[in-house]
Design brief:
Length: 131
């Protein structure tokens, strides 16, 4: 970025050295072009600085989120999730995606919903067709 700032500064110096002013039509155009280039380069420099700050902020948030996830769910090495957990594979009757539910969810009276389409997995109309 510094290279572009230097190039625009060089153009301004060159215009001053050649005594180009805005009294002629060509001079007006050249002066305005260099002024616009100057503004663009400084705006890009400001955007890059803002982007760098946001990148740093996002990195901090990502690290904090990782800490929260580890606190809530534990590390992958924890024995919290063992092979004793059993899952039942179900095909959603609405979106036909295969979804998995812990087997103990079927022991409750709660209705199960597909995580893909949010429709009920067990539809009484469909179960009547099975009879």
């Amino acid at each position: 970025m510094d290279y572009l700032i230097e190039k625009v500064a060089y153009l301004k110096g060159l215009m001053d050295g050649l005594e180009i002013d805005d009294r002629t039509n060509e001079g007006k155009i050249l002066v305005n072009i260099v002024d616009i280039l100057h503004d663009i380069v400084h705006e890009i420099d400001d955007l890059n600085a803002s982007k760098d700050e946001l990148d740093e902020y996002i990195q901090t948030i990502d690290e904090d989120l990782s800490d929260v996830e580890n606190e809530l769910y534990g590390d992958d090495d924890d024995d919290e999730y063992t092979d004793d957990s059993h899952y039942i594979e179900v095909e959603c009757p609405h979106c036909h995606e295969t979804v998995y539910f812990a087997d103990d969810l079927f022991d409750t009276d709660n209705e199960l919903y597909c995580p893909n389409c949010n429709e009920s997995i067990y539809d009484e109309e469909l179960s009547d067709l099975d009879d």
